[in-house]
Design goal:
The structure holds 2 protein chains of 2 kinds.
Chain A lengths: L2 E13 L7 E13 L3 E5 L6 H9 L6 E6 L2 E2 L7 E4 L11 H11 L5 H11 L15 H13 L5 E5 L7 H18 L2 E5 L3 H7 L2 E5 L7 E6 L15 H27 L1
Helix pairs in contact in A: 2-3, 2-4, 3-4, 6-7
Chain B lengths: L1 H4 L6 H20 L14 H6 L2 H14 L3 H32 L1 H16 L6 H8 L3 H25 L3 H9 L4 H38 L5 H10 L3 H29 L13
Helix pairs in contact in B: 4-12, 5-6, 5-8, 5-10, 5-11, 7-8, 8-10, 10-11, 10-12, 11-12
Classes of the chains: A alpha/beta, B mainly alpha.
């Protein structure tokens, strides 16, 4: 399989602005590949540098060492082939839902931006909400607008940073199924960050476990051989799911405990 | 009886109006010659001389607007000065604020000078502007600009600095160029800060115009007040003040109307999240 996104021995060290002696290595020596059309999840304990990894893939952060390559080309500057769905609120509050979905198309000068954006809003089930401002939408609706905004540009690589962590469990499962359906139709490479192991297994082709920070690195990789198409709620009840969950959790557990104790000590 | 006139949201306007009437009645009773025995002054004419008489003041206003109809020209001049100072000052503040917020080095170089200019009492510039730009409209506009500029400037500067980094990163990932970031992210974000300062700056533009007229001019409401003061005509001075106050309220309402039109994307306090 061709690699869509590839990390080669990537490390990222942050230097404190006030005190240059203070350094923090978020990730160390990470090598990871996401194939074209593959759905890869990264799980790991809290504060292990998952978002750092994603920011490097997006080109928002430059790695301290190692290279990130996109379809074989070393990445310099922003990753134009990637769409990024952020964990925090990222919609422009001064644009309507439709305006937000349109934004990327408009920046690129697409002639039929409005029609395309309207299509995408309907696809995420918000056809009648185009004229609402973000503050007039619920949290789940805002996430769906974000999703439409990201997917409307038809990126070859989709980066998602705990996109549904702020949602309640029911909304979350609906959204997960929606994402899976949209992904199945287009088969893009997805790098999905989550702290929720259930979510990772239910959605991905492959799950990568990261060790606790600082200097976190992959400590295990699991191929998820569950049948597709999946329903995220139903797949959780299958024996194979439980088996995979146990296998991954046994690798992850010690790291989660370590990460938690580090936070307590700090 | 009290049950019906007790203050409540329903009769708020009536109470506000009542308070205004009460103030004018009190004013009239205390100043009209021969109505009450003078207790502060030596004779019953002095109160009217120092504080004016409401009835004569209203008569003056009536003459200005209806019978004489000669104030419109002066109001128009003052309005012109205010709007020009407000518009030019806001545009300059917006431009400089955006520029300095986006180029930290330029901001670092200019910082002490901006602080110095801002802390200088700018009203003393009025005589200099009168020398530079003459006694016409231009010198008043210049004074108004110096007052408006800094308010807008500091708000825009703050607004750009406080753009949410996530919204900014998202816009960049969506492919916004530097110019598009300016137009679609920095500017709207700064606008919300500018609007919160607009009520103050329109008031200051007005202050600049009137103070400028007062210090030297041949037309405008400030000039009318100056003329009346020269002949100790306290009623006309008070009438001028009343007209200016009403006018300032109108300007403020106009800004409020613009704000509601343009800032409808902002959540109003108390508005619940609609599904």
């Amino acid at each position: 399989m061709d690699s869509a996104l590839r990390f080669d021995g990537v490390s990222c060290t942050f230097i404190s602005r006030d005190d240059p002696g203070q350094r923090y290595t978020a990730v160390r020596d990470v090598s990871l590949t996401v194939g074209a059309g593959e759905f890869v999840s990264v799980v790991g304990p809290t504060g292990c540098g998952k978002s750092t990894l994603l920011n490097m893939a997006a080109g928002l952060l430059t790695p301290s060492s190692g290279t990130v390559s996109v379809f074989g080309q070393p990445l310099a500057g922003l990753n134009a082939k990637a769409g990024y769905m952020f964990q925090a609120e990222s919609l422009m509050p001064w644009r309507t839902a439709l305006g937000n979905v349109m934004a990327g198309l408009e920046f690129r000068g697409a002639a039929d931006a409005k029609a395309q954006a309207g299509d995408w809003l309907r696809r995420v089930g918000l056809g009648g909400f185009g004229d609402r401002y973000p503050h007039q939408l619920s949290g789940g609706m805002r996430k769906r607008v974000s999703l439409a905004q990201t997917l409307a540009l038809d990126p070859d690589i989709i980066l998602m940073d705990e996109p549904f962590s702020a949602l309640d469990i029911q909304t979350r499962q609906l959204m997960e199924n929606e994402v899976l359906a949209l992904w199945a139709a287009k088969k893009k490479a997805v790098l999905f960050i989550t702290h929720d192991l259930d979510e990772a297994i239910a959605m991905s082709d492959r799950v990568v476990c990261l060790s606790a920070g600082p200097g976190s690195h992959p400590i295990g990789e699991f191929r998820i051989d569950l049948e597709r198409p999946r329903d995220v709620a139903e797949v959780r009840a299958t024996p194979r799911f439980v088996e995979l969950h146990q296998a991954i959790w046994s690798v992850l557990r010690d790291e989660v405990v370590k990460g938690y104790q580090q936070q307590l000590a700090a | 009886m009290w049950k019906f006139i007790k203050p409540r949201p329903g009769n708020l306007r009536a109470w506000q109006l009542g308070l205004l009437v009460a103030i004018f009645v009190l004013w009239h009773v205390l100043t009209a010659p021969g109505l009450v025995r003078p207790f502060l002054f030596d004779n019953d004419r002095q109160a009217a001389f120092f504080f004016g008489e409401p009835l004569k003041i209203f008569g003056r206003v009536w003459a200005w607007f209806v019978t004489g109809a000669d104030i419109y020209h002066h109001l128009w001049i003052t309005l012109q000065e205010t709007v020009l100072a407000f518009g030019i000052g806001t545009a300059m503040g917006l431009g400089c604020g955006l520029w300095l917020a986006l180029s930290p080095m330029a901001a670092a170089i200019c910082e002490p000078y901006i602080k110095a200019l801002n802390s200088m009492p700018r009203v003393i510039l009025a005589p200099i502007f009168a020398v530079w730009f003459g006694l016409g409209v231009a010198s008043k506009v210049a004074l108004g600009i110096t007052l408006v500029f800094f308010i807008v400037f500091f708000n825009v500067y703050q607004g750009v600095k406080e753009v949410s980094p996530v919204v900014l990163a998202n816009a960049r990932m969506l492919g916004a160029s530097r110019r598009q970031l300016l137009r679609h992210v920095y500017l709207p974000s700064a606008t919300s800060w500018v609007f919160s300062s607009l009520h103050t700056s329109v008031g200051l533009a007005f202050v600049g115009a009137v103070v400028g007229e007062y210090l030297g001019s041949a037309e405008g409401v400030g000039y009318l007040i100056l003329q009346a003061e020269g002949s100790f005509d306290i009623n006309t001075v008070m009438a001028g003040i009343l007209v200016l106050t009403a006018f300032a309220l109108l300007l403020d309402a106009a800004v409020g109307w613009g704000e509601r039109r343009l800032m409808k994307w902002q959540p109003k306090s108390g508005e619940t999240e609609k599904l």
